[in-house]
């Protein structure tokens, strides 16, 4: 029998006074990791809160593990572990108190696994929340989410503000959680290295819209940087997939998306010489999307 998709968002919109999340489509199957990337204020947390049923969309549909949200959120939430930066814990209580609390609600709580996680993440369950550092707090919420062994993990910025060693511990535990082949993860991060490292799919959000959503290989493969020489100062061909173009004397550096092997010939035909075609990292793609979107907005304002 086919498993329902981990998450299926279709045409999801949400309007706030100064922000509009518009027509978001995003889906991925169980057993995979979706990385949500976008600059500050792009709408990542808003989308995640809707996936968790914490807020309802104005329009569109959201299904999580086959459950319609927010309508079936009680059934869905038994199978979702949520970790967000602003998660509230009881300051004057210990980690052990929170573990008991979660154990009392979820039958799926795995105490042996919780103890393994505490050891691996170097946490003392007798410590009170108010005495925890930021990294220890994130690790404690990770234990509370993972030891329930949920089918879907939703992590909003799990690695923000962590030192490199703790970041690696958190990412390693996320990867360990995937040993169960039907477990899925939706996570957002500003750290493109994290997303590039563990995601199967990438969705890029900018200004409340999905710019691109595809599997990681297609996403990364679609972007290229071409190095060109232009000794006769010919105009660049007018191609819709040119996202950025920078000139330094006779040398041009052009960033394109939806790259295909016929593209260099189009520059050659226009009288330019292609000296190199390079792949981009997710970080470079991030910057290119944001810079070209900002340039478009400035052009519209100026015209
Ligand atoms: N409850 C709310 N009322 C009004 N505006 C809101 C509310 N929640 C979010 N917004 C606005 O929606 C926009 C998107 O916010 P959101 O937190 O989803 O972005 P984000 O991509 O998670 O950003 P960051 O990376 O900075 O965390 C912001 O402009 C924010 O001010």
From TrEMBL:
GO terms for molecular function: ATP binding; ATP hydrolysis activity. It comes from the Bacteria. Keywords: ATP-binding, Nucleotide-binding, Transport. Residues 7-232 form the ABC transporter domain. It holds the Pfam family ABC_tran. PROSITE patterns: ABC_TRANSPORTER_1, ABC_TRANSPORTER_2. InterPro entries: AAA+_ATPase (IPR003593), ABC_transporter-like_ATP-bd (IPR003439), ABC_transporter-like_CS (IPR017871), ABC_Transporter_VariousFunc (IPR051782), P-loop_NTPase (IPR027417). PANTHER family: ABC TRANSPORTER ATP-BINDING COMPONENT, ABC TRANSPORTER ATP-BINDING PROTEIN ALBC-RELATED. This is ABC transporter family protein. It comes from Asticcacaulis biprosthecium C19. The lineage of its organism: Bacteria, Pseudomonadati, Pseudomonadota, Alphaproteobacteria, Caulobacterales.
């Amino acid at each position: 029998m086919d498993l329902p998709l981990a998450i299926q968002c279709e045409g999801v919109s949400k309007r706030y006074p100064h922000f509009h999340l518009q027509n978001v489509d995003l889906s991925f199957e169980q057993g995979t990791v979706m990385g949500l990337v976008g600059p500050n204020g792009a709408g990542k947390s808003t989308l995640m809160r809707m996936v968790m049923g914490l807020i309802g969309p104005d329009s569109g549909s959201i299904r999580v593990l086959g459950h319609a949200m927010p309508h079936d959120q009680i059934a869905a939430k038994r199978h979702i572990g949520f970790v967000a930066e602003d998660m509230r814990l009881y300051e004057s209580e210990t980690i052990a108190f929170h573990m008991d609390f979660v154990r009392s609600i979820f039958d799926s709580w795995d105490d042996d696994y919780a103890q393994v996680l505490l050891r691996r993440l170097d946490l003392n369950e007798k410590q009170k929340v108010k005495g925890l550092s930021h990294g220890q707090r994130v690790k404690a919420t990770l234990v509370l989410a993972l030891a329930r062994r949920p089918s879907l993990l939703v992590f909003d910025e799990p690695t923000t503000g962590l030192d490199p060693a703790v970041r690696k511990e958190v990412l390693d535990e996320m990867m360990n959680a995937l040993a169960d082949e039907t477990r899925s993860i939706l996570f957002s991060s500003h750290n493109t290295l994290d997303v590039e490292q563990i995601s199967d799919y990438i969705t890029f959000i900018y200004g409340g819209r999905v710019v691109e959503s595809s599997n990681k290989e297609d996403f990364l493969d679609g972007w290229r940087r071409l190095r060109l020489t232009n000794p006769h100062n010919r105009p660049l061909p007018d191609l819709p997939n040119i996202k950025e173009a920078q000139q330094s004397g006779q040398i041009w550096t052009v960033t394109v998306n939806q790259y295909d092997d016929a593209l260099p010939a189009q520059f050659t035909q226009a009288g330019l010489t292609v000296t190199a075609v390079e792949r981009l990292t997710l970080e470079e793609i991030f910057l290119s999307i944001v810079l070209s979107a900002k340039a478009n907005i400035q052009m519209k304002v100026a015209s």
